[in-house]
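User: quick one
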Amino acid sequence: MRLDRFFSEQTALSRKEAAALIRSGAVTVNGVQLRKPDAAIQPGTDAVTLRGKPVVYQKFRYILLHKPTGVITASRDKSQKTVLDLLRPEDRFAGLTPAGRLDKDTSGLLLITDDGQLTHKMLSPKSHAPKYYLAALRDPFTKQIQSAFRDGILLREGDTEEPCLPAESEAIAERLAVVELHEGKYHQVRRMFAAAGNFVEQLLRIQIGCVPLPPDLPAGSYLHILDKDANNMLMKSHISEVCEFARCYYSSYWIKSGK
Ligand code: URA
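Assistant: Done. Structure below.
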């Protein structure tokens, strides 16, 4: 692949901008300064740096966002702010879409990617990525709620009631519970608690598969992650580990954000 093409694919630089940067001497390949935009390189094999920093070859982009409340999970909308509007212009690559959905009033971990295969795997019933939510409840979390979720609680769908897949849940405080889901029905966590006679006041997604919401990532901010980290979203965790993490980092989440 041509060096200028490599840069225009791996950054938001145009081909022309990339060529100018290469000519200026800002780029090395395998430790050697290369000033030729048409130099041929092997993406993924050759070590490329820009101003001394490695530029890691990635076929797709993976953005780990801490979605704030008040923003909708969509690529674009005429009147409401979307999660893609939170990206800096240089990060708005064509083809990026949210892999899954968080409702407007829910905050937390959301992957935005142009890797359609991973998005499909994360959402398809066969390989659905496990998702972990922290719910702040109006009333105490009880053993009855825990067993109703474990049995597959019924949710109203039009004129009928349909069972959810069995879901594990655990309290980390009297009114704070972690729920593990392997499916994605509309407003599922809120509706599950409502069906059990409780009410979700605040909801935060704290983990997908083995990938936690980084505790030091403020709401509205995001990180670029590698494909291997994004693929860890397909792996299962144990709810007790997720609860431990939630107790350490997220039991005061809504206190910190002042909500
Ligand atoms: N369950 C909900 O109620 N809302 C979400 O955004 C995700 C799961």
